[in-house]
Amino acid sequence: MHARFLSRRMFLKGAALSATTIALVACATPVAPTVSEGSQAAPAAEAIEIIQFDRNVPQDIEFRKELAERFTEDNPTITVKIEVMPDDYAATLIARIASGTAGDCFRYGTHYGMANWALRGILQPLDDFIAQDGYDLSIYFQGSMDACKVEGKVYALPVNGHPGWSAIYYQPELFAEAGVPEPTDTWTYDDMTEAARKMTKGTDQYGLWVAPYYEATLTPMDAFGGWPMDETGTKAMFDDEKTIAGIRWLYDMMQTDKVALANPSFDSRVQLWSSGKVGMVLSGIWEGSYLGDATPADKTLKVAPGPIGPSGHRGGFMGCNVFPIMQTSKHPYETWLWQKFICSKEVGIENVQRIGEPGLRTDVWEDPSLLDDPVVKPHYELLKIVKPMPVPANGRLSEIADPVTQIYSGIFLGDIDVEAGCAQIQETVQAILDQPKPGA
Amino acid sequence: MTQSRTMPLTSASPLGGVRHKRKLSRVALLEEVWGYLFIAPWLLGFAIFTIGPMVISLYWSFTKYEFPLPAKWYGIQNYVNAFTQDDLFPTALWNTIYYVIFSVPLGLAASLLLALLLDRKLPGRAVLRTVYYIPSIVPVVVSAFLFSYLFQPEYGLINSLLKGWGIAGPGWFNSVTWVKPTLILLALWGAGGPTMIIFLAGLQNIPTDLYEAAEVDGAGRLQKFWRITLPMLSPTIFFNLVTGIIAAFKIFTVAYVATGGGPYYASYFYVLHLFNNFFKYLNMGYASALAWILFVIIMIFTVIQLRVARRWVYYESETAGF
Amino acid sequence: MTVQLQVARAPKPRRLTFSWFDLIATLLTIALALLFFFPFYWAVVGALKQPNELQVVPPLLYPPIPQWKNFIEVGNVLPFYRYLWNTVVITVIGTFGGLISSSLVGYGFSSFRFRGRNTLFVILLSTMVLPGEVTLIPTYLLFVNVLGWGNSILPLVVPSFFGGGAFSIFLFRQFFASIPRELNDAAKIDGCGPMRYYLRILLPLSMPVIITLSILWFQSYWNDLLGPLIYLTDQEKSTITTGLLALRSTLGGSFSRRGQAMDHLLMAGSLIGMLPSIIIFFALQRYFIKGVVMTGIKG
Hints:
The complex is a heterotrimer.
Chain A: H1 2-28, E1 48-55, H2 58-74, E2 78-85, H3 90-99, E3 105-106, E4 108-109, H4 114-119, H5 127-133, H6 142-147, E5 149-150, E6 153-154, E7 160-162, E8 167-170, H7 172-178, H8 189-199, E9 206-209, H9 214-223, H10 241-256, H11 266-273, E10 278-283, H12 287-294, E11 302-305, E12 317-322, H13 332-342, H14 345-355, H15 368-371, H16 378-385, E13 387-388, H17 397-412, H18 418-433
Parallel strand pairs in A: 1-2, 1-3, 9-10, 12-13
Antiparallel strand pairs in A: 4-12, 5-6, 7-12, 8-10, 8-11
Helix pairs in contact in A: 9-10, 17-18
Chain B: H1 25-61, E1 63-64, E2 72-73, H2 77-84, H3 88-118, H4 125-133, H5 140-150, H6 157-164, H7 179-189, H8 194-204, H9 208-216, H10 221-249, H11 253-258, H12 270-280, H13 284-312
Antiparallel strand pairs in B: 1-2
Helix pairs in contact in B: 1-13, 2-13, 3-7, 3-8, 3-10, 3-12, 8-10, 10-13, 12-13
Chain C: E1 2-7, H1 20-47, H2 69-77, H3 80-111, H4 117-129, H5 132-146, H6 154-157, H7 166-177, H8 181-189, H9 194-205, H10 207-222, H11 226-231, H12 240-244, H13 263-285, E2 292-298
Antiparallel strand pairs in C: 1-2
Helix pairs in contact in C: 1-13, 2-13, 3-7, 3-10, 10-13
């Protein structure tokens, strides 16, 4: 009894002692630095986990997990956990942000509307980290860096991307059949139109396929010298003759000359291509695998840079995939380190083999594996010159893209003529551009 | 208390059953207790899981909520804007009402027809019913893709066949005038689904002796259908009508997947407009208001149906009401 | 007082009579069957094709060289069979909960008079009306932040035990209401309380409805997309519907991706996903029992 009593007391003492010790230790341990904009933060000594939301594309996930492991080898205290989001993840992302469980960074695109999130205060500006580390931004294509800025602040590094729906994917066999010379680096829109006419046989075969969506139509629009809005993002330019000319070209392809499907569905390009029924597809870098896999046995796939328009240059836009950092992230500096890692030159080159979209550093494109790849190289010319996807100053990109695409479909199906359609677009878009920023 | 009732109920009438006098209040109280007891799971669930989110959503509809910036009180401005400022509101509403008006009666009639066809004593009935049911469980991505592919205007199978017969096929999904009818057609493909099996269950529930007695009385096929089948089926028809209208008002997924609301807004349905405002444009206050406007519209339709139901729905048990 | 119920037996064999009506009806039945079977056939054919055969023009109605390996391939690209298991768990639990609670509540609404019943019923219907998109976020916050059920199947299955949704309650209520009150009265006089009446008489009578709802519940859980999408964040917990999203190459908006065209795997995966629903449906609907015959209530 005595012993038990004593031992109980001893136990209690011991417990109290350990509790105190634990408390002391906890207090003494440096709390992970609360990083606000610009505070000096050395990588914390304790293990840190960064959570990245990534899209549910198996090749992407596999690659990113490998990169995460390599990153941890270089930075042993930091692990990156890749959480997979479904492709269409608007609902999920929003739910997570609402509940405060949104992770540290997420895969997004400057052309999906990153500006909208930035203006609503969800994203962390990176300028201070860039200054702190003395990071050189000039290594990136100008257009890509511009795309990553909102109101002059940098919100992400361009990880990988593409210059829009701007290259010509074609089947040389069909050219040979029709006796048409294949596309060259100096092709113009007239050349392309001519070739398309020669390869079109009613509805049995089409010379050309062009997409009717807001972002895809930027290519011809740009080539004709037009653009949806001015540089300030406050004035709609669908009343500009050159912009209208670009749209009219599309209309002519679809309705006047009928060399392309009118208002085609996204699948229709694969449907025609896999049946050898379309000579040229004006599309983007992803077609290397999509159209590549769908090429019929007796045909081949070749790629040429998009044609030069009346403006004297080719058309396109810069679409960057980015991994912006959440304002609510507890480890923004570490996340920034991760971001620099995946934007390195080596990774940028690997991107091409693994996920098909090259890094957007100019030095990535010095690598022969890119320049020698006939499917990838034609995009290089465009990367040097394209501007970012035009985003309104108030960030309301999808509010513009949706109505524009809708009215386009009316134009391209012939339900409304080009002038009237553009006038309608002008009115609608200007009304949205006139709206204040979110929160104002 | 004794009751005798000659059977069978040959004079089934669509106009309500027999009424009894109100019982003693103690018994009535007991009935109340039992009633509440049985519905308790739902009451509890409603209180815990449903009412909170509904109230929050209603609150948001009175705010200017540009997610994730804090919501600011906005009064009824969202509701006013919907009716005065939003150019797409009338379009979205009209498209949806069009869809409801045409798809629901057609769908019900089709499902009823299919149920009648399959209620007969056919060999392989189980297999046939399963086959009819399949389109409704094919995932929307697969069926929408298949439909677009078959109905592709320039080279799809359907238009190619029509061309062979000298008919110029319409634009189907890619036409302002045809997109809604095409979506209704796609919905009809699912007519062998849940609606049909509910009708089948309803048909099974009809006592066969009613038909036998009618035959004895010399009733023909059509008379049996009008006088027995339809009235006895009326609770089921009512159910499918109410739920069908509610579901049709909320049409969204197939338009989102197959047409994106186009072309030229022709399939831009109300819930699509709501979805865009909520998840894409992040105007959650306005989107919530849109939702509640729809709620009121559908509830008006539903309550009207409940009132009118007294006239045509026949229940064997008179406790059901409505 | 006894109540006798007989389930109708198979009808007596009739003389073979020819009827135009029957002939047309049968032909129509078969024609429609072919039409309805087509999407399934298409999914089978698509699952066996190679990527460059999937969307050719004119369409290939059979796979030139059946790629049976696609069904294995699906399991390589994704942990598909684990997703299958996850879906089974959620579906079984949810269906069970939904059937029990909605039949109880439906009984309550159909066969008892109590104050506020009509109002509550209208409220019940109103829960079907509000578009789910709008309560999605608040509901998510409730489950994840308030209840702490993030990244689990609880938000998906627990609500089914609490009434399970207006649709089923409404359906049960309709069916129970079409059963004559005399049955209830007779049972009462026999000393049968409401619970026993419910268990011993009502449920067996409602076999067609129960079977119908089992099928519908199964299907609704099996094909649910938004629920698992939002509440199951670990990839290993995904269901088939969310798992298959990875294979779509052509859906809305995000065009700038590389992925090998995996539509053929999407077809294979969708097909595997469809099979349980089909099997359940086929197995259960054979048990629809035709009709109920009341042989009278003897006083």
